[in-house]
Design a protein that fits this description.
Elements lengths: L2 H5 L2 H14 L1 H6 L2 H20 L7 H23 L7 H15 L12 H102 L7 H49 L4 H15 L3 H4 L7 H30 L1
Length: 338
């Protein structure tokens, strides 16, 4: 039985009717003291038990039986008072004793205090309803938080994907630096060597040019000395060989620098170039590059011989022979004149 139905049950009306009868002047006149005390105690006891009982554990039929016994007792008292007869103790008392026995069987909490369980149940229902409302609000907030968390997770995943692409690029760059770093160092070394030999060649050419210019200027002077001029020309001719050698070494190292620079550029750019391709195509390109670059460095950087060096030496020998022959003829002519 629910608390609302319990508080509106007819048993409370019947019990209040007993209280009204006991308060009337006729009851005071016709009901003896012993029965009156019993009825007042019965009223207080039944009312107290009803206030303490647990409505949810009571069957409606139980209250109907209690209300019926109280109504029969009230009717008996009212009838006797109405006819002006003194109410005997044993007449209505039997009905109220039966009601008391039924009330004693009602469930009630074990408490010393005067406890109104109906109010407690009502309060409990209000508490449950309030908690249900709060749970609904909390559930809505939780759903909103979950949506926001899902949106934030999506943003984080997008950011992580972007970072992953950046990391891949960085790894490619670092890998390319590891692969191409040696070629870059070799190219830098060849650049320094080429620059050194270029300055050496330039030095010899400047010295050779100064000797030739000085010899030509001396021809216009009155004190021309043929032997000194020939020696200067010979010295200038001898300087041709180291100058040309230095120039050739400079060109050779410059060529090696260019080749290493090209290799560095190709290996550095191959990673980003093949990144969008499928794995099969990537593997094929890697195999081709391995066959091209690895194990064939002796053919890639092989110096291309130039026969100009041999021609230069041959021409230098001819010049020296011509100068030597000219010097002998001048000596013979000078000897015959004497």
């Amino acid at each position: 039985m629910t608390p609302d139905i319990f508080t509106k049950h007819i048993v409370f009306e019947k019990l209040e009717r007993l209280n009204q009868i006991l308060a009337s002047e006729e009851a005071k006149e016709w009901i003896n003291i012993e029965l009156r005390s019993f009825l007042e105690a019965t009223y207080s006891y039944i009312k107290g038990r009803l206030n303490l009982t647990i409505p949810l554990l009571i069957q409606e039929a139980e209250l109907e039986d209690i209300a019926s016994e109280i109504e029969l007792g009230n009717a008996q008292i009212s009838f006797l008072i109405g006819i002006g007869d003194a109410v005997q103790t044993h007449l209505p008392q039997d009905y109220f004793n039966s009601a008391l026995n039924k009330v004693k069987n009602l469930p009630f909490p074990l408490s010393k205090d005067d406890f109104d369980f109906s109010k407690a149940i009502s309060s409990f229902q209000e508490t449950v309803q309030s908690a249900y409302v709060r749970m609904g609000a909390a559930n809505e907030k939780l759903q909103q938080d979950l949506k926001e968390a899902a949106a934030q997770s999506s943003d984080v995943i997008t950011a992580l994907k972007a970072k992953l692409e950046e990391a891949r690029k960085i790894v490619n760059i670092v890998g390319n630096i590891g692969v191409t770093g040696n070629y870059q160092n070799i190219a830098n070394q060849n650049k320094k060597t080429a620059n050194f030999f270029r300055w050496v060649a330039l030095f010899f050419m400047v010295v050779m040019s100064l000797l030739l210019i000085y010899s030509i200027i001396e021809l216009s002077h009155d004190g021309f000395n043929l032997h000194k001029s020939l020696v200067r020309i010979l010295a200038a001719s001898v300087l041709v060989y180291p100058a040309v050698y230095a120039a050739k070494e400079s060109a050779r190292h410059r060529n090696l620098e260019i080749q290493n620079r090209n290799l560095e550029l190709e290996l550095a750019s191959i990673g980003p170039f093949i990144e969008p391709l499928s794995e099969d195509k990537k593997q094929k390109i890697r195999e081709d590059l391995a066959n091209k670059y690895f194990g064939k460095s002796h053919t890639m950087f092989e110096d291309k011989k130039n026969d100009s060096e041999g021609v230069l030496v041959s021409e230098l020998e001819k010049i020296l022979k011509a100068i030597f022959t000219l010097h002998q003829k001048i000596n013979e002519t000078h000897h015959h004149r004497k």
